[in-house]
Amino acid sequence: MPHGLTNTPPEPQEAEGTGARGGARGGLGGVDGATVGCHRLVSLFLRGALRLRPPRTLRAPAWDLPLVLEAMSLPPFEPLTQVGLKWLSMKVAFLLAITSAKRVGELQALSVAETCLRWNPDGSRVVLWPNVAFLPKVLSRTHLNQPIRLARFDSPSEEGRSKLLCPVRALRAYIAATAGIRQSEQLFMCHGGPNRGCALSKQRLSHWVVDAITHAYGASGRPPPSGVRCHSTRSVATSWAALRGVPLEGYLCCSIMGNAWHFHKVLSCQRRRTTVPMAAVLRPSSADSKE
């Protein structure tokens, strides 16, 4: 055993970590009257390897939400009646991601079927459900068949651009624009290529959201942050909701975290009461300067 540990590199390679070695030791036979996993030298060795190469925590990249929202109210994302389907698709994907704080799998499972899409008679609100075959990451009654509820966002602002960020408005335009080519009841569909009109994959949906963020930075003349992922919209959305004073239960319901205590620990900050979390997240940057 000492000879084997001496010939083992003390630092794990990039492709492996302490978890990989911990799993490997469990599959080996016994030695010196004890299993390899319980051997004192093995435990000391793995503890040292952990200190030399501690686990890395992936942090969400810091990208500027007001900058992206500003770009969403300008060409090529506006006016909706004239934009191409590519830009309209990216805008709807981003707005739904940022206002719902849902995982990409939950967004991809949304459907335009009659049982999964309900509009208010006046068009001011819409409720979207995933298709019945969708299974969320956490299987429980709380997480199954969770809807996304959106209200029309048209509060006044100095620049008159608030309504251009309304996801209800963008969603209605997207459904109308895709009606003629739609080959699936899935909400998001391919807008070009041989699969035009077919259901969109989770990978492509993630690319849409990331591309929207990247384009916003390019349009403003700033280099985009590295490592942007679609999943980062969840942390950005909930953080902005907390900073805007949305009650804990408001964004906890949107993000479907494991429990309220854990979510409160992550977003421990002062909150002021507001009634519409979506309006708080999409508040124009000009409003921030007044506070």
UniProtKB/TrEMBL annotation:
One of its GO terms (biological process) is DNA integration. The keyword DNA-binding does not apply. It comes from the Eukaryota. GO terms for molecular function: DNA binding. Residues 1-26 are annotated as: Disordered. Keywords: DNA recombination. The keyword Kinase does not apply. This is Tyr recombinase domain-containing protein. It comes from Merluccius polli. The lineage of its organism: Eukaryota, Metazoa, Chordata, Craniata, Vertebrata.
